[in-house]
Structures are given as C-alpha cells and as structure tokens.
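Worked example

This section walks through a single chain of length 66. The input is the sequence exactly as stored; nothing has been trimmed or padded.
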Amino acid sequence: MNNLLDIDSISGFKKDPISGAYVNVDKGVLAEAKYRKKLNKTILDMQAEINTLKEEVNKLKKLLTE
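Given that input, the structure is written out below as tokens.
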C-alpha cells in the first residue's frame, strides 16, 4: 500500500496502481464516519429502550384499570 499514486482531480484519495482501487487517505473523514456510525447506533439503542419502556408503562396502565 506504500505505492499509492496521487490523484489530482480527487482530494483525499490515492490510487492503488495494482488493483486500480481508489483509497481514502483522509483520516478526518474516516474518524467522522466512525463517529456518525457510533452515534446512529446509540440513537437506535435509545429508541429501542424508549419503546420497551412505553410497552411496560402500557402494561402497568392496563393492570391498574382491570
């Protein structure tokens, strides 16, 4: 991977001459993507927990009205 070629038209990317693949070498973009992925997982976990709590509250309400 040390033989990556600079690409003038695309900033933050280099080209692997063997495979022809474009490689993102901008570490800031990678860190931001990882942060967004972690944040999205946290949001999904919180939504699932909220839904569970709503179900439990509804069960308790039902028990109280019986």
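What to look for: The first helix runs from residue 27 to 65.
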